[in-house]
Specification:
Layout lengths: L4 H44 L3 E9 L2 E9 L18 H8 L4 E3 L9 H9 L4 E9 L2 E10 L8 H15 L2 H4 L2
Antiparallel strand pairs: 1-2, 1-5, 3-4, 4-5
Helix pairs in contact: 1-4
Pfam families: GAF
Protein name: Phytochrome chromophore attachment site domain-containing protein
């Protein structure tokens, strides 16, 4: 078998090009995913007329952080925040994995764990609406609406809007593959 010197050269040139193509493909998918999350959080914040809508993304088993936020004012930013370690445990995770939706009109009047109330106070939250984003392999994240300036009564249409937003994210092929 005779090897042509040019075929070896072409083959080695193809590998870096293929690697670059793969990198560009992943970059485009990431940008599309991020744009969908940004549009979803912005639309929900405006429709719900709340101070903040965030995506809390789980990067490992029940460990996560706020990776996207839509704000009515920059003072409400919590980008990069992580959840309270002692409060979000396997029990809560199992509830959200099962589809739990939690709507709290006023954290000061709701019967919640003291660590949860303190955590929400530290984030300037007065009213809270949490909807899970569940994909086939598990709990991908939480879509969370916060009203910071006072209590907020969540209507059934508010909850449906958030669930629709979560479902949009949960069925996007760029998220399913991330």
């Amino acid at each position: 078998m005779q090897i042509h010197p040019h075929s070896e050269l072409n083959h080695s040139r193809d590998r870096p090009e293929q690697g670059l193509q793969n990198l560009l493909h992943r970059l485009v998918k990431t940008m599309q995913r991020d744009e969908l999350v940004r549009q979803t959080t912005n639309q929900l914040r405006k429709s719900l007329q709340v101070d903040r809508v965030v995506l809390y993304y789980f990067y490992s088993q029940w460990q996560g952080q706020v990776t996207f936020e839509s704000l009515s004012s920059q003072e409400f930013s919590i980008l990069g925040s992580t959840g309270p370690d002692d409060c979000f445990n396997n029990e809560y995770a199992a509830l959200y994995l099962a589809g739990r939706v939690k709507a709290i009109a006023d954290i000061e009047l709701e019967s919640i764990q003291p660590c949860h109330r303190d955590f929400l106070r530290n984030l300037q939250v007065r009213a809270n609406l949490v909807v899970p984003i569940v994909i086939p392999r598990g709990l991908w994240g939480l879509l969370v609406a916060h009203h910071c300036q006072g209590p907020h009564d969540w209507s059934s249409s508010d909850i449906e809007m958030m669930q629709t937003g979560a479902q949009t994210l949960a069925t996007d092929h760029n998220i399913l593959e991330s």
